[in-house]
Predict the structure.
Amino acid sequence: MRLQAVKGTADRLPTDQPSWRRVHDVARRVLERAGVRELTTPVFEFAEVFERSVGEAADLVVQKEMYTFDDRGGRRLTLRPEFTAGVLRAYVEHGMHTWPAPVKLWSHGPAFRAENVQRGRFRQFHQVNLEVVGSAEPVADAEAIALFVDVLRALGLEHATVALGSVGDPEDRQRYNAYLREALAPRAQELTPTSQERLRLNPMRLLDAKDPGDRALIDGLARPLDHLGDAARAHFDAVAAFLRDWGVPFEVDPSIVRGLDYYRRTAFEIHADGIGAQSALGGGGRYDGLVAQLGGPDVPGIGWAFGVERVLDALAQVGAAAPADAGPRLYLVPMDEEAVADVARIARALRTRFHVEHGYTKRQPGKGLRDADRAGARYAGLLGARERAEGVVQIKHLASGAQTSVALTDLAAALDRPDPAASVGEVAPAATQEV
């Protein structure tokens, strides 16, 4: 058997790293400017953390697709299928309710679900996650949504659009679920088995059904937004007003639902225009009551997450250029055996300030320059017997071909100039020697 990555997982190659780093760096910059602080939680938790959070009538997908196992001590553990439960477990455990409210936290990393693998769906996937805990005000919802859009715009997805809805308060959900059960009871046997189970446990989730037969039965029914009580309606209208005032693009989507019991009022998704049917990048909503469900104080919260793989796919589809993998500032080429030790020593000294690489065996100048070019270096530095005797390195700017001798004592200063390429090119012809 040829060893390979497990289905639904993928290696992240060195050439992929700049794009991934950029997503995290942009998210960090945008979120931390808004006072959001980074939190890292374990990749696995006691299974009870997620079992408590998903609730008795949770979405079947979350129930069935969690990776739960017993460790050697007989403890039931689960690889995180999403971030919210673990973040709020940390919030409770570390007494963050005593911090100034709202507490704004962001996280990033892998999550795990036993998905049916297809484009945009993996068994190990990666998310950027935001939680805002301690405010029930509509402005907190609007800020969270706006920050999501800000991150995507900063990455290059200028036409990301918010689909805004509401699942109402618990009594609104109960009223809507009762409506669905009554409306669909006469034809329940025509639903797929999955939808029949959802009708029993959590009817609101039927609005996410993809089967054409299910959709034919559901499409003519009222939506959650039609069943909001006065308080939930006022909250929804206030969130929408803030978004309009801030110029955040959104469309009202009456069909948005959430499969987990803890969601309240605001629910939203964010889509990238122009990338086809798989346009959803992520979403979130308000989850008042979840902290108490996890053993903490009864404080409100709202959060969201987006899939990093989905965002990178969307960026590629809209033609947003991936950042280049920055090569070394200098690649040192040893032109004789003695120079192998010399270039290693010089590289170590320069690495306190620059990205420097070097050859490990002696190389002819032409081959050494090709090595430097393949490494993506800006400059090649050639060192042989004559250069050693003179205390210099031959420095060549690979893009322009300009070349000059630089004293070893001046090498760091030369590389540190604002435009070292121009400096090399300005050297008088008498001081220039072709290799």
